[in-house]
């Protein structure tokens, strides 16, 4: 590879929101020229909790690609990958599952959080814990060095790093005492990938909880200015009057620091607010809304071009082109993995079929 490689992506649960933008997508756009980028739509993972909603998952898959394109992901620079069209991912998931103890998988804090947030109790499917192993395969099949993620996804990367080390040691004969960056140099198949957290590690929703569709607290990258103002208006601080000194560690100032681009203006707002210098929450909310609109407006305009039958047909063609490139890389990795495991009885060639 002439460039180091990146792999990251999103599970199609609906449209992307501001938390996705500042946590990861903004970073992906900036990294496109420097790295060989693969961006994965994890539609297979969506079935772990919504197997009874295939139409919804398909629609969300298209929405994700619209958001990516609107944000500046360029399919001529980066490869957009649809998970279900890369069978090597599912096969590698099976092999990696043999190298991760079940109790290690279930200790993944993000997995536990999803069980709680989605109120799955103990009735989740057998496939649900495989989601955590599948994420390892999503990453390792493309052998990236970096995985741009939000702060809440960093925990998912550690099992991937562990299983990459284990595979390299067991099947490639790599010394377990090596530093991570030396594994490939010493004969390992998989680089030990590193998480790359975005500019804002975790942006809460407008109610202070994790920003998500299910909690109805998200500002979407497709929202109108009217919707943005209404949602920002829901942020509460507990402050009563504009002459009352305020605490700038509150949720409202999380948004100030995330979206107002002028550092000098941020410092001015923090000073005036903390001193109770005749500045109200409403004024700050209006300024934050304007700053968010400046980010979202061009994305919203670009996105609308794909909200047509012709636009969606173009998205399908982008997915097919990305699938061809992705399978070339994935099948090479899978064959190399099978050679290391002594099960290389023939490579295969894959290409998408026309519907």
What are its keywords?
355 residues, Tyrosyl-Transfer RNA Synthetase, 7% strand, mainly alpha, 3-stranded parallel β-sheet, globular
Report on this model:
The strands form 2 sheets. This protein has a 3-stranded parallel sheet with strand order 1-2-3. It has 355 residues and is mainly α. The protein contains 13 helices and 5 strands. The radius of gyration is 22 Å and the shape is globular. The longest helix is centred in the last third of the chain and has 32 residues.
What structural class results from the helix and strand content? mainly alpha
Number of domains: 2
Superfamily (CATH H level) name of the largest domain: HUPs
Q: Which series of helices and strands comes N to C? A: EHEHHEHHHHEHEHHHHH
Helical proportion, percent range = 40-55%
Which architecture name of the largest domain does CATH use? 3-Layer(aba) Sandwich
Strand order of the largest sheet: 1-2-3
Round the Cα radius of gyration to an integer and report it: 22 Å
What's the CATH class of the largest domain, please?
Alpha Beta
Shape: globular
Q: Treating each run of at least 4 consecutive H or I residues as one helix, how many helices? A: 13
Task: Predict the CATH topology of the largest domain.
Answer: Rossmann fold
Low-confidence stretches: none
Number of strands: 5
Whole-number average pLDDT?
92
What is the terminal-to-terminal distance? 33 Å
Major beta sheet summary? 3 strands, parallel
> What portion of the residues fall into strands of 2 or more residues?
5-15%
